């Protein structure tokens, strides 16, 4: 009779470690929203308006859904902007064609930003394996964007598998984050205003051009937040506002802990290390507009 042993579970990482890992993975994932390569691929399908491109590439995994579903899942876009493009985009190109075009655009984007050597490197394959392993512990319940992307096949090439896994982890956290924002009593625009007030969110000019809100609506949201004691007269977060944003991120961490606990402390540290290198290279290559982030 032989005795059997089981391997000990990997040590659980600090809650903030998962957030740091997510941040570097999400940055590389998000580069495709600003990519001329993706824009060119969608234009080849006949989808050319910047907002239409954005809605198509992110919502295609959901299928040919209507504007209500997209507004609900995306949370911080003005419904009228969504309805101006959805479901019209699905009459131009099918979700399946959009997904294929998106993957071609992502392939070109990662090769342009990182270089062919990085794309083909052992480190990229290692990062893909770690990220996919973390994503094994993601859960579908109440997470529509994650669940839709989890139904898609994993690309064979390591750099695309890494991007796919980063997408799964981003949408898993994002779906949970939306639940937390709803529980905190912040509507989509108020969530944007408070995030921008932290100095880590999108500048108002980009909110106006990409989310469909205007300056008057932004000011009205600020006034609502002042009434709640979240913002001061200058539009800065009050002490209560800072506490609220910290609570939101901490609760989002709690809802998103499973993938990183599954990966373990050493795995999270290594994935963060590898992701930081890839994201750093993408940032140096100009993956994002220089004035995207800031308070004003």
UniProtKB/TrEMBL annotation:
The cross-references to InterPro entries, in alphabetical order and at most eight, read: HTH_67
Pfam families recorded: HTH_67
Give the protein name, as stated in the record: SalK
NCBIfam families, per database record:
SCO6745_fam_HTH
